[in-house]
Design goal:
The protein is of the alpha+beta class. It is built from eight helices and 18 strands.
Length: about 350
């Protein structure tokens, strides 16, 4: 189904941006795992709108409610249903836009596919759908950390032309990431990124950026050749997110400028295991994890909905001018950080369970 993801650790999200609520059903969570709403809420708090001056003015508490699959603080092994109610929706903001497809938004394509589309807030194409991903991803993260010591950390590595430098993949922490509103652990770059976002908002415009993610302590052997390679599953997960336009792992496109003699990762003995001296591969070779940190980057475009007047046409083909109303992020990357972490956890948790079937 188009709203489901995963094979053994499987999720199905539901809800639109301005309906009564959004949520997710999670299948495959092992039984007898300690779990409460607070375990999930901390990541939802990082994703929620209205948290600081850099995001949308829509202010949602995004309080999660566990509906099923947990009893007396322990998972039952049955499907876990979770719901977050929409509290601060304003569908009236979109009345004037119901007959005008917003440039570069999903209004037109949804109508082309289904013959109808949600009249406010983007419906299922809105980033509000990602609440279910973050809630389920928090469960996957808890499972991976407790059972395997796997750590997942994402951060904003660029906004516009401002790039972060000097980030250590081996040690960067979420505490360092959250030290700035823009979620960049390079605090000098974070200040410059913040100025870029504030300037875009002042111009009733938007700006894009890049989120980098590292997954540490993965065992070697995760990934299913040939079509379900680890990097292919990660790319699928990341490019399913709203506003994404690019994915690269390890050396990525920069690796095309290198010769094989420089790009190859020599094998060495370290920490009592076989590892690699360098990590141009990004922790994946032949579609299977090699025990090194898996790291990748995800490109997010500037949000499509902006306050500037833009020439377009309505659904009848009549020329018009649209200045979008509503409350929107001038840049999505700070709030995308926990979403990228969540999708990474869902991919890895699924592959861990698949690998357990083999041994």
């Amino acid at each position: 189904m188009s709203s489901s993801f995963g094979r053994l650790f499987k999720i199905s999200t539901f809800g639109e941006s301005h309906c009564a609520g959004v949520g997710v059903v999670v299948d495959g969570v092992p039984p007898r795992m300690k779990l409460c709403e607070a375990d999930i809420q901390k990541q939802l708090n990082r994703r929620r709108p209205g948290g600081n001056k850099l995001g949308t003015e829509r202010n949602e508490a995004d309080q999660v409610q566990i509906l099923s699959g947990v009893e007396n603080g322990l998972t039952l092994g049955t499907p876990i249903g979770m719901l977050v109610r929409n509290k601060d929706q304003r569908p009236g903001d979109y009345g004037s836009m119901s007959e005008i497809p917003r440039p570069s938004h999903a209004d037109y394509t949804y109508r082309a596919k289904y013959g109808i589309h949600a009249s406010s807030g983007g419906g299922r194409s809105s980033a509000r759908e990602t609440i279910g991903r973050v809630a389920s991803g928090a469960i996957a993260e808890k499972f991976l950390l407790e059972q395997y010591g796997i750590e997942i950390v994402a951060w904003v590595s660029s906004v516009g032309h401002q790039d972060a430098t000097g980030i250590d993949l081996e040690t960067v922490s979420r505490e360092q990431v959250d030290a700035s509103d823009v979620r960049c652990p390079d605090l000098v770059a974070a200040q410059k990124m913040t100025k870029e976002i504030v300037a875009a908002r002042a111009d009733k415009d938007s700006i894009g950026g890049v989120v980098t993610c590292v997954c540490r302590n993965l065992p070697a052997g995760l990934g299913e050749p040939v079509f379900d390679r680890l990097e292919a599953k990660l790319a699928h997960a990341m490019l399913s997110l709203p506003a994404t336009k690019g994915f690269e792992i390890g050396s990525g496109f920069e690796g095309t400028r290198m010769r094989g003699s420089a790009h190859n990762d020599p094998f060495v003995k370290k920490d009592g295991r076989i590892g690699t001296l360098t990590n141009c591969s990004g922790g994946v070779q032949g579609g299977i994890s090699n025990g090194e940190p898996v790291y990748f980057r995800v490109a997010f475009k500037p949000p499509a909905t902006i306050g500037q007047e833009q020439p377009t046409v309505d659904y009848a083909g009549k020329e018009t001018v649209l200045a979008a109303k509503g409350r929107h992020d001038p840049c999505v990357v700070p709030r995308a950080v926990p979403i990228v972490e969540a999708m990474t956890a869902l991919v890895v948790a699924d592959l861990v369970l698949i690998q357990k079937m083999r041994v």
